[in-house]
Specification:
Layout lengths: L3 H9 L7 E5 L4 H10 L3 E6 L17 E4 L3 H6 L1 H6 L2 E3 L3 H7 L1 H6 L10 H5 L2 H10 L7 E2 L9 E5 L8 E4 L2 H7 L6 E5 L4 E10 L6 E2 L5 E14 H4 L5 H6 L6 E8 L7 H19 L4 E9 L5 E7 L25 H15 L8
Parallel strand pairs: 1-2, 1-4, 2-3
Antiparallel strand pairs: 5-8, 6-7, 6-8, 9-11, 9-13, 10-11, 11-12, 13-14
Helix pairs in contact: 2-13
This protein binds adenosine monophosphate (AMP).
Adenosine monophosphate binds next to β11, β13 and β14.
Amino acid sequence: MVPKSKIDEILDGYDTSDITIATLCSHSSLQIFHGARKMGFKTLGLTISHSTKYYDAFPLAKPDEIFRYKDFDDFEERIGELQDRNTIIIPHGSFVEYMGPRRFAELPIPSYGNRAVLGWESDRDRQRQWITSSGVPMPKLITDAREINEPVMVKYHGAKGGRGYFIAMDYPDFKMAIDQSQPYTIQEYCLGTRYYLHFFYDPYKTDGYRCEQGGSLELMSIDRRDESNIDEMYKLGSIEESRRHGLYPSFVVTGNTSVVIRESLLPKAFEMAEAIVNKSYELFGGMWGPFCLETVVSDKLDFKVFEISTRIVAGTNPFISGSPYADLIYPGLSTGARLAMEIRDSIQQGHLKDIMS
Ligand code: AMP
């Protein structure tokens, strides 16, 4: 990982009255640029091959400039251009995934958040260790496929966004579908309603929902993902029946919808998020800024967290002009704007370096 001292040195050379906020053109970039502009920053879109014409359709979210690269090698070679513009990058899921977490970790450019979290998020075993040692329940792991006696979810390592997952009902089912040449994990299939909780941890805020770490936890919004084709599969009858016709469920995210959870679930949601934040400080120096707990709630009203995303998620996109939760903290503010507000305030209060890595 790029040494923190190197990032601090780069920031020492920055004119903090003229910061540019940059991100990769995809995922939640509309929201990030819109929020950055709202807080008075210049904006810069970075793109390898992604079409950017769609920004013309959204003038309030169109970046001031766009840099086009041949590939990520070209991007790394031209990093000086970003430093010349006093650039801070905002990582999002696609940025880290397309570039690869290892490569992203080495980028010599200030990035919002703690890059040490990448090693914990991208490794399923470490992620499980972090979440479960916080006391937060996760789906049970099945280590021996012969012991499958309830529906399970099989996830190939490196599978992302639900592509490369399958459901097995029992061992013969598993055997029929598994590709043994790839590493995989098997976990309990959690039947229930999915909620993706978008939190923001501000280590400097001294009011609101206070955490042991001294900062404050905010719930900005909640979404549910639309996943193709599982969400529409019921229309064809049972999964068994569909399989007989060669149709298998997949979990590829195609969109997001806004949801709220019953109010009595909120205390538990905050307790889980707080425990995970507290543990992050113990394990790797902390996680601050936006993160998402991907959960399933059973009919007993128990949460299980099946994954954590440690940066802005695309599920925050329905909330560019606020959410039922954000409106009770900062009316009309998106997570993208909340991020930019954090950077603006840190510059004003003289601790920008502390939220960058
Ligand atoms: P992920 O890549 O972990 O975010 O998972 C993609 C999708 O697969 C989720 O949004 C859920 O719909 C589904 N999923 C993942 N893990 C489980 C699980 N243990 N039980 C039920 N559904 C799951």
